[in-house]
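re: ur question from yesterday

yeah so i grabbed the chain u mentioned. its 164 aa long if i counted rite. heres the sequnce exactly as i have it in my notes:
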Amino acid sequence: MSFEDPPPGSPSAPPVPVPDGWTAERDGGTLTLISPDTCFWTFTALPGGPDPADAVDSAVAGLRDEYEDFESEALPVAPLAGGEAGLDAAFFCLDKTVSARVRAFREAGVTYVLFYQGLDGEIEERRRDLEALSRRAVRAVVGPSALGTLGDGGASPFPGGLPR
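ran it thru and got these structure tokens back, copy pasting raw so excuse formatting
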């Protein structure tokens, strides 16, 4: 594992337990977890609290630039303080369908971006890990009381459930 701490005073993604067989990397305010297959999960803290919708648009623009056959679906606003934005995407890479999910929300002047992607079948196999990582990261930022009963079967602050 390679961890680079963010500069002093800079926000960073909170630590989360790394699932068995996954690797973790920290680069400044971003924590990336990489599965043994093609899935990866990132959680990034953006100082200055840019608009969550702009953060989602920026992440999606990167995908559009990289992948030719790209489709996405915008999501409705969720009930997190400061607003939350999200988008689900699907695209083709080497004749395989890849799914990605990006969510962004603002808390205490910092915008947090949660992103993951992988081949469709692998995303389904890793759904529990990805949802657990996402819940833990969001809880670490907004606290358990702000999420109500988020947990096994609990209400989610993400439209359509936690990122899949």
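noticed a couple things. The longest helix spans residues 127-142. also The CA atoms of residues 43 and 114 lie 5 Å apart.
anyway ttyl
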